[in-house]
Amino acid sequence: MAVQYLKRASRTAEDTTAEARPIVETMLADIAARGEQSVRDYAARLDRWEGEILVSAEEADRRAAEVPAALRQDIDYAVDRVRRFAEAQRDSVRDFAVEISPGVVAGQKLVPMGVAGCYVPAGRYAHIASAYMGVATAKAAGVPTVIACSGPRGPAGIHPAVLYALRRAGADAILTLGGVQAIAALAHGLFTGKPADIVVGPGNKFVAEAKRQIYGKVGIDVFAGPSEVAVIADATADAEMVAVDLVAQMEHGHESPGWLIATDRALAEAVMQRVPALVAALPPTARDAAAAAWRDFGEVVLCDTRDEAVLVSDQYCCEHLQVQAADLDWWLANLRNYGSLFLGEETTVAFGDKATGPNHILPTKSAGRYSAGLSVHKFLKPLSWQRMTRDGSRDVALATARISRAEGMEAHARSADIRLARYFPGANFDLGEPVSN
User: Fold this and answer.
1) Domain residues for 414?
2) CA 72 to CA 78: how far, in whole Å?
3) What is the pLDDT at residue 2?
4) Does residue 271 share a domain with residue 144?
5) Each residue's pLDDT tens digit, 19-45
6) In 281-327, which residue ranges form alpha helices assigned H by DSSP?
7) Integer Rg of the chain from CA
8) Whole-number Å distance between alpha carbons of 249 and 349
9) What positions carry a catalytic annotation?
10) Is 143 part of any domain?
11) CB-based contact 113:379 (threshold 8 Å)
């Protein structure tokens, strides 16, 4: 295998996680001890927000009226597509019952979680799309109470288009909170009295670390930290198009890597030549973010073959993976590790970020090796149930008694013994050797 790095990153995701961990730990402990007052203090200090935390329906409607009609139509369009895709996901799984053996029936019942907390990032950009990605998907799963959080953007509070998107997607409560304090408020049920069963949504390194630390007290969707993009490209790719798509995702933030995996040196070198100019042409906020991301986290890998490119890509396990290469069906069949896959020049990550339909809340930091992105399945509990007749329980009880005693678990065995004695009086069964110590 001949893999050559034409550009290597000077920093890694592990560096940023280590920086965030002690800060988040301290904040979560303080919020757990002092509750809502601690959250208010952090909101005032970190976000300069001292207004009401819980947004009233009247305030949400008033602010949403500030959104231009054309943008409202675009948001409605995107919400509908995300909802339709999520509903199709819900229809793909079902309750069932199966007779395992005569008289023994087992089944699955899909039960939505009771309360979902949906986090929407604020700060550098107004993340309108993240508002409906989380909330609309939870509602499609049948979650009865969805609480959304987003930080203020200026003295008026949450961005009006984000508020409009949250309302259109079906949020039942909206909190003006961002960062670690928002994740903690959702987990503890602060300001609503309804602790979340699951907290979902993308965010910066502090939000991602807060979700990691609260996991166990509540469920989480995925480790969705700073955005990542990788493009696999061969000689048939358009270098300008590849470079534009890398830069498009790196504008998310200083720690959002862009990775190019190329099977053609000329293409790779052309992309590397174009990226700095594309970054320089961005407006100041995006330029600052993308320049740092490319400088510190960007990588370009040259592979001899497409099989090598697949191995490298699966090792990166990137959140957003684009393929701009020939024979797209081959890549679809062979790539395994990614958050979401975008096949062909026509299918840019930006489309999926905003309005295609599949969710854009996706695993980062190689979590795609074992986890998929946000879907209705994250909000559903596939609960099992069992029912037996007395005759049907006979063989199950015999196996249970003997296995339990082989394990040394006498009390388990006796719960089988008593049923055999009651249901089959006078029968002589081999129940295994009783546990003596």
Assistant:
1) 394-437
2) 10
3) 80
4) no
5) 899 999 999 999 999 999 999 999 999
6) 284-297, 306-316
7) 26
8) 8
9) 319-320
10) yes
11) yes
Distance CA(309)–CA(306), nearest Å, equals 5
- Only one residue has tokens 């979650």, namely 143
pLDDT of amino acid 1: 55
The 3-state DSSP class for residue 61 equals: helix
70 assigned to some structural domain: yes
What DSSP assignment string belongs to 206-241?
Answer: HHHHHHHHHBTTBEES----S--EEEEE-TTS-HHH
Give the angle subtended at the CA of 59 by the CAs of 56 and 60, to the nearest 5°. Answer: 85
Q: Are 237 and 345 in contact (CB under 8 A)?
A: yes
* Residues 147/112, Cβ–Cβ less than 8 Å: no
Distance CA 212, CA 225 (A): 10
- Whether 128 is in a domain gets the answer yes
- Find the CATH number of the domain harbouring 130: 3.40.50.1980
b/e code 189-218 from CB counts within 10 Å (16+ = b): ebbbebbbbbbbbbbbbbbbbbbbbbeeeb
Q: 306-315: string of b/e by CB count within 10 Å (b at 16+)? A: bebbbebbbe
The answer to whether the CB of 185 falls within 8 A of the CB of 191 is yes
* 251 and 293 together in one domain: yes
Q: Measured between alpha carbons, how far is 9 from 301 in angstroms, rounded to an integer?
A: 11
Cα distances from 286 to residues 150, 252, 273, in angstroms, run: 21, 7, 19
| pLDDT given for residue 222 in this prediction | 84
Question: What are 152-192's pLDDT values in tens digits?
Answer: 998 999 999 999 999 999 999 999 999 999 999 999 999 99
The single-letter DSSP state of residue 434 is P
In this structure, the answer to whether residues 271 and 318 fall within a common structural domain is yes
Answer yes or no: pTM beyond 0.85: yes
Q: Give the pLDDT confidence score for residue 248 in this predicted structure.
A: 96
Q: Distance between CA atoms of 152 and 176, rounded to whole angstroms?
A: 6
- For residues 61 and 200, state if they share a domain: yes
Q: Which segments of the chain have a pLDDT < 50?
A: none
Q: Rounded to the nearest 10 degrees, how much is the dihedral formed by the CA atoms of 410, 411, 417, 418?
A: 160
Residues 307 and 430 in one domain: no
